[in-house]
Amino acid sequence: MFTKKIKNFELTHSEIKIYSLLLKEELTPRQIAKKVGLSERIVREKLKHLLELGLIERNLIKQGWLGYIYRAKNPKEALNSVFFKMEELLGLLEEESKKIL
Fold first, then answer.
1. How far apart are CA 35 and CA 62, in angstroms?
2. CA-CA distance, 95 to 36, in Å (whole number)?
3. Exposure check for the chain: N or C terminus, fewer CB within 10 A?
4. DSSP letter (8 states) at residue 74
């Protein structure tokens, strides 16, 4: 269980490219897909993971259609989000180890 959870913190090359791109400008999934050369479906999966880690944010937009526009959190804020999630994971690990012992 712990190994699977810790793997959630790994970023793929594509996720790093997307995060770097979003540091420069706010974009929709379609715009990101065009810039990084991936399908929109794959980009949405990568964005979901980046959101779960707290590295990016999204805002709902209404411009004749509903959708999201994404932006990266600044690196320091993003790193703090990751550290917070890691601390939560370590707390769960401690609780599990107490049950075993």
1. 22
2. 41
3. C
4. P
The string of pLDDT tens digits covering residues 30-89 is 999 999 999 999 999 999 999 988 899 999 988 777 899 999 998 888 888 878 887 887
Which of 60, 61, 26, 74 has the alpha carbon at shortest distance from 35? Answer: 26
Token couple for 54: 């707290």
d(CA 83, CA 14): 22
Sequence-distant contacts of 20-24: CB under 8 A, at least 24 apart: 20/72, 22/56, 22/70, 22/71, 22/72, 23/72, 23/74, 23/75
For residues 26 and 56, the answer to whether their CB atoms sit within 8 Å is: no
CA distance readout (Å), 101 to 9, 11, 94: 27, 33, 11
**Interatomic CA distance for residues 89 and 53, integer angstroms:** 12
pTM: 0.76
pLDDT computed for residue 34 by the predictor: 97
